[in-house]
Amino acid sequence: MANVTIYTKFYCPYCERAIALLEKKGATITNIEAATKPDVRAKMNELTGRNTFPQIFIGDTYVGGCDDLMALEAKGGVDPLLAA
User: Fold this and answer.
1) pLDDT tens, residue order, the chain (84 aa)
2) Counting C-beta atoms within 10 Å of the first and last residue's C-beta, which end of the chain has fewer, N or C?
3) What is the dihedral of CA 25, 34, 69, 1, to 10 degrees?
4) Is 7 exposed, middle or buried (0-12, 13-18, 19+ CB in 10 A)?
5) Pairing state of beta strands 28-33 and 3-8?
6) Angstrom distances, CA of residue 60 to CA of 2, 27, 83
7) Phi first, then psi: what are they for 29, rounded to 5°?
8) Angle between helices 66-74 and 13-24 in degrees, nearest 10
9) 56 strand-pairing partners
């Protein structure tokens, strides 16, 4: 199963929703709290071009934010990425 990297901030309902879905699927998640760490947030922004939370990678594939993850799940696209 592919590793998941998710850039988050504390008390973010979108982060919690994304993590809940990925945990339900049995994903191994590396949670990187970036909101209070300017250097980590800058790296996230450089990698994604976005400054909102969460930002999700499944393996080497950039998924986007929570809404992007949910849209991908609705199309059946999350499981194949996790299986890679």
Assistant:
1) 789 999 999 999 999 999 999 999 999 999 999 999 999 999 999 999 999 999 999 999 999 999 999 999 999 999 999 998
2) C
3) -40
4) buried
5) parallel
6) 9, 14, 13
7) -115, 130
8) 40
9) 6, 64
What is the rounded distance in angstroms from the CA atom of residue 12 to the CA atom of residue 61?
22
List the structure tokens of 58: 């499944």
29 close to 23: Cβ distance less than 8 angstroms: yes
Sign of the alpha-carbon torsion through 71, 19, 8, 46: negative
CA distance 56 to 72: 12
Identify the helix (H) or strand (E) that includes residue 43: helix 38-48
Place of tokens 């929703």: 17
* Residues in contact with 68: Cβ distance below 8 Å, sequence separation at least 6, in sequence order: 56
